Amino acid sequence: MAVDRERVGALVRELLVAIGEDPDRPGLRQTPQRVADAFAEFYAGVGEDATAPLAHTIAVSSGPAPHTMPSGAVMLRDIRFRSMCEHHLLPFAGRAHIAYLPGAQVVGLGALPKVVGILAARPQVQERLGEQIADAIDQALDCRGVLVVLDAVHECVTMRGGTQTVASTVTIAARGALAEPAARAELVGLLGRESG
């Protein structure tokens, strides 16, 4: 479902009036349209199928390395994401780290950031976002376990209330064999290591 830009623009204009501003002054004349355009981008994931990027899998037994069955996890670290907190409609942004224990199928690594992007592009809370990413991967791939760690800074914490400017929130979602803390300890340990 596409964002109704015309309606968003009209509502932003009304919001400007409601806070005591003049939406016709030069600095604000284009604001309703700009906000509508931004919302179309911020909420592009509403109604989208987050498992669609995972539809094309590669059979491990006949893929590019047919004699190399993964014995451990496949991990992609530092996937940048941004989302909008559904409580205050303020942004939160950070990094997602995803690991999964492959079964007979693997997925191209570029598919994982697409899943994150679709699910982040809707009104969210970080805890649910991590769970939804884990669910999408768990449901779409024949994997033995999934781990999703999100580390994000929330502007509802940094800009209002207690204004904790450097505080970040870390959440963990896990499925299958990685649901037990001991089973995922090695992977969580890898997150703190410098890449490259």
Describe what this molecule looks like in 3D.
The chain has 196 residues and is of the alpha+beta class. The protein folds into two domains: 5-42, GTP Cyclohydrolase I, Chain A, domain 1 (Orthogonal Bundle), CATH 1.10.286.10; 57-191, GTP cyclohydrolase I, C-terminal domain/NADPH-dependent 7-cyano-7-deazaguanine reductase, N-terminal domain (GTP Cyclohydrolase I, domain 2, 2-Layer Sandwich), CATH 3.30.1130.10. Helix content is 34%, strand content 27%. It has helices spanning 5-18, 31-42, 111-120, 126-140, 155-158, 181-191, and strands spanning 57-59, 74-85, 91-102, 105-107, 123-124, 143-154, 169-176. It has a five-stranded mixed β-sheet with strand order 5-2-3-6-7, with helices on both faces. Strands 1-4 form a two-stranded antiparallel sheet. The chain starts with a helix and ends in a 5-residue tail after the last helix.
- The overall number of domains is 2
Number of strands: 7
- The computed structural class is alpha+beta
Could you say what the CATH topology of the largest domain is called? GTP Cyclohydrolase I, domain 2
Strand content: 25-35%
Count the DSSP helices: 6
| Secondary-structure element pattern, one letter each | HHEEEEHEHEHEH
Please identify, by name, the CATH architecture of the largest domain: 2-Layer Sandwich
* Terminal residue distance: 40 Å
Mean pLDDT: 91
**CATH uppermost class of the largest domain:** Alpha Beta
Describe the global form. elongated
Q: Return residue spans where pLDDT drops below 50 for at least 5 consecutive residues.
A: none
Proportion of helical residues: 25-40%
Question: The biggest beta sheet, please?
Answer: 5 strands, mixed
